[in-house]
Structures are given as C-alpha cells and as structure tokens.
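Researcher: Good morning. I'm working through a list of sequences from a screen, and I'd like to move beyond sequence-only analysis. For each chain I'm collecting a predicted structure so we can compare shapes side by side. This is the next one on the list. No need for commentary yet; just the structure.
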Amino acid sequence: MNLSTKLEQIKGVGPKTAEQLRLAGLLTVGDLLTFLPRRHEDYTGVVAIVDIQPGKATIKARCEKVQTRMVRRGLKLTSAVLSDETGKLNAVWFNQPYRTQQLAATDEEFYFSGEFEYNYGRYQLTNPSAEKATELPVQAERLVPVYRAIHGLKSQVVRKVLTELRPLMGMLPETLPESIVKEEHLMSRADAISTMHFPVRIEDVAAARERLAFEELFELLLASQLNKLENQKLAGYHMPFEVDTVKAFVAQLPFQLTAAQKRAAWDILQDFEKSTPMNRLLQGDVGSGKTVVAGLAARQAVSHGYQTALMAPTEILAIQHAATLEGLLAPFGITVGLLIGSVKGKARQTLYEQISDGAVDVVVGTHALIQDTVTFKQLGFVVIDEQHRFGVAQRQKLLSKSGTLPHLLAMTATPIPRSLALTVYGELDVSVLGERPANRLPIITKIISPVSAHTIYAHCDQEIAKGRQVYVVCSLIDDNPDNDIKSVQAEYKRLKNSIFGHRQIGLLHGKMKPSEKDQVMRDFKAQKYDILVSTTVVEVGVDVPNATVMIIENADQFGLSQLHQLRGRVGRSEHQSYCYLMMSSTNKPSQRLREIEKSNDGFYLAEVDMQLRGPGEIYGKAQHGALNLQIATLGDTQLIARAQKAAKRCTDTGMDLEALPDLAHRVQYYQRLTTLN
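Model: Good morning. Structure tokens for this chain:
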C-alpha cells in the first residue's frame, strides 16, 4: 500500500463508503491523508449540565425533544431539550434542519459542544456540534477532528478509514526546503498531518496548523516572487519623465489632485522610466479618481509616441471612461476613440483604420479591443479596469497586441486587503488611492427597519424636489434570474402605482440587452428618471453625480463588499448623500450591516469582509481558481510576512525547485493562476 493506492482497496472500505469518498473528490490514500479537518471539537472538558457556565461548553447528554420550524423566509430554527442526570437545557440550531432527524427517536448519548449564551430571554446552547458518543474514537472525551461534509460525507466515515491509514502518515514526503523548516522552527509535514488527524493536545494542533498554513502561503508567495523575477527580465518601452508635459496636464485640471493621486501618478511615471514593463495595481475606493491618474499616465505615453488602450468590463463604463479621458486630453490635441459593440458598420471600420495608422492616440473599449481585427501602430500602455472581471487569457491577448510587452496598469474599485494584495497580487507593485476628492462629503448610512420605510420614502421625495435622483436596488432573492426579474419588476410597479406615482421611474435588470441597459443608464444620467429601480447590475462604475439617495432593499441578503460598492453609486458630487439599508425583517441587524453603517472606509470594510466570508467568496473563485487554502487565512498578516521573507530567501539563493517536485508542481500552478501577463 502506498500514497497512490485506491481507497476501495483499504480494509473496511466497501462500495458504499468508496462512493461517498469519490463524490467528495477523495480517490487515493494520498487524497485522504491530505484532506485536513476544518476544525477540532474539544471534548476534553465535558461538564455536567448543572455546572455549565456561559461561554464555550461541552456536555454529554440525551435529546428529550427536538423540532424544526420556519421562522421566516430563508431561516429555519431547530430547537431541542437536552438532559443528563443533573438537569436539562435548551439548544438551538439555525438553518440546520437535519438535526431533527439526527436527534429524534433515539435514546443514545451525544457529545454537544457550542456556545452557552443568553439569547431571546433565556440561556441556551447555540449551534452546537453533536456527535454520537458511540461513534467517537475509542479514547472518548478528547480532541476530535471534524471534516468538511462534502456531498454529505460524514466525519466518522473519514475518521474510521484514517485509522487504517495511520501507519502510512510517516511516508508523506517533505514539501518545504529543509533549511526553511529549521529556520522557521516548523513541524515536519508528516508530523503535522498526523497531528491534525490524531491530535492529543490542543498545543500540538496549533503547531501543526502553523506548519501547514505556512506551507500554503509559502507556495503562493514563492510563485509571486518567481513571476516578479520573470517580469524583471523582460524588455519594456522606455518613457523618460517629462516635467513640462506633466505640469501642463495638472495645470489644466478643474480641481486639485489629492495627495494619494500625486503619489500614484509618480509611481507610474517612475515605472515608465525603467527598462522593464510596468506591472502595477492601482486600487482606489469608489470615487477616488483613478481615471484621472490613468489619464495623466496616458498623456505621458502619447508624448513619447505610444498609444494607450483602456479595457473596461461594460459598455456604460467604457463610455464613461472615454468621456472623462476626452475632457482631460482633448486640450492637448490627443484623440480618444471608443470601441464598443454598438459602434458598427463604416464607423467601426474607420476606427480600426485610425487605430492601426496611429490617428487615434487613446482607445477605450470593452472586450472588442481584443478582437483579431484590432491592430495598433505602437501600443505602449495598457489600462485594465476592474481587472478581476477579465480572465488571464483576455488580459494576455490585449498585451500581445504590442511588439514589446507594454506597461500595464490594472485598476480596481474593490478595495483589496493588504494581506490579499501580498499573496494573490504579490508580483504587482501596488498604489493605493485612499482619499476622496476634497469636495465630497461622507455618505450618511443608516439601517432601516421595514416599519420605518415610509420615513425614507418621504426623504426621497424631498431630495427629488431639490432636483436630485434616487436609486432603489432590489436583492437577488435566489440564483434564478426569472425570479430576480419578478422581484425588481414587482418593486418597480409598487412604487410607480402608489408611493411615487407622481415621479418618473426607470427599470434596470440583468436580463435586458446590453443596449437597453446602456440606454436606461444614459436616460437616468440625463435626469429623464427621478428614481431608478434596479438589480445589482448598477453596481460597477456608473457615475451619476446628481444621484444622492441609495435604498438597498433586503440589505441583509448582500455581502459587505457588495453593499459598499452599491453605496458608492451615490456621494459623487458636493451634495450630501444617503444610503439606506432596508432590512428584510425587524430582527437584529447582522454584524456586516453594523460595520457598513459606521464606516465609509472601503479598505477597513474589505478586511472585515474577508474575515467574515473569506477571500474566495469576495474576489471570485473563477478568476483566482481554487487557492486551496485549507488551513491558512489571508488575515494572518504575521504569518504572511514570515512566508514572504522565506520565499525571498529562496529566490535570492537560487533554490532548486526540481529537488522538491510536489512544491514545484504547486508553485507552477500558482504562477499560471496569478500572472497578469
């Protein structure tokens, strides 16, 4: 038996168990050994019910009564009465209806472990784990690993099979350089995995988690370091800094650049002077002025005879960027072209020719820019807006339209936590626009109960009377787009036929054709509508300075990052703006709603959001693939810093990756995953 042995060949693994493991993606011995517990339940401190104290607690008890009921849409509450020889207590689970089947009609004892706390007028055990006493490992009342229940795979099944494989854990190869293991005082990989599956002391689990988390981060950071070294070998376009050109651009601006904009622009202009291509991420909160910084850089590139291409994810955003850049660059005789799907026929062909012969200096467009029919005379600078919404192949295709690799500026309005920027974007230099323009007032954000909705509508009417406009955003009730349309259309009809019958109301949703969506947004910007009722398609980039109120219906159904992005559609002028987070019910607001109510700082909220939901949920698994972080958290900045230094030591000393094939395979995977060019 070895690491590649099929699991069905293991003693005690019958066809049914083998199928459960296969559905969870576990085919071989190696797969199961590296299928790590997501947590450990501590059954070492079992107390009698009569002795239980508030806080984390574990009891051994029977279930006397259990039932599940629907409290409200989307929330099922399971309640139980638990008892031992000393007394009884209540337990509750939220959206875990399977607990009824697990606990009903049995006289067996269970270990229950969870928070014993005061809620809804009484003390209760909240969301406890529940393990049959007979199914725990032989040495009961100990640390017990709990595994992810993929396709219903039970932890006790995994634990049973792993008991058969325990002797093989010493065969697991080391995946970190020996020098790193010693310098960082880490457990060996074999010991760490053995400890995770068969822990004895909680201190040992902490050391094992540290070792495995370090390994995961080290792989990711080493890939970033190697990508950065590869980028430094490339030849780029040399564009010396021109003081007079930059001064003239800044002088004609109708506003003052913020200190953050000046720093970011200086970073870019210094990169232009280098012999290697720029690879920079410009992240700035909504309304922080990224397009102006990109425009200044484009001005410098054009003065050296190079064209600029700016690719945006939607037509409306491309139109907006083109209009902004036209205003910034036209005074210097620089031509800006717009290449989007709605530009057709002779006009499109003419634009192709102008791009090819260099008559157009700056080209703004959508995916249309990467078509084979588009050729540039001398493309020297590429800007990709909301770059996480484009695939690696799409970015590379745009960059390949230049003979030499052009300078690349990736922009995002989604604030990225520093820890995530160090890992997923580790090969990039990062500039941050952390300030809003001087004339912008902080957006007043309030959580609103449905019973207070009438006061908000009255305030909207007052704002409209002043000549302002209002967004009403409806939640995505589920993944069915038809249901989504019904919800937004129902809200549109309700407002139009009752509360705001005297106002002009527009409707926007994702099932509209791109041309229809763009027309609605153009009409809203032109003030043909007082109110725009929309789904989240309104989220990215649209600039309507006259809109001062954002109502987000069922705000508790949104993620924190998305709420912040939606809020950023208002507050884009000197007028005071408001964001109302309308609750689905009169229940207590969630932590994420309380956080966004108290802070307008997108970078702070991004850190909170990552802690609440994890990086994959926020930034999209489609773009970053599976980061495969079973143990590490991107919120652990201290461990990230250690892993980053270790990765740099390895690249500085020219470490031979071929000597560690498992590590080499993982690092090469991450190199392909995270590269921008």
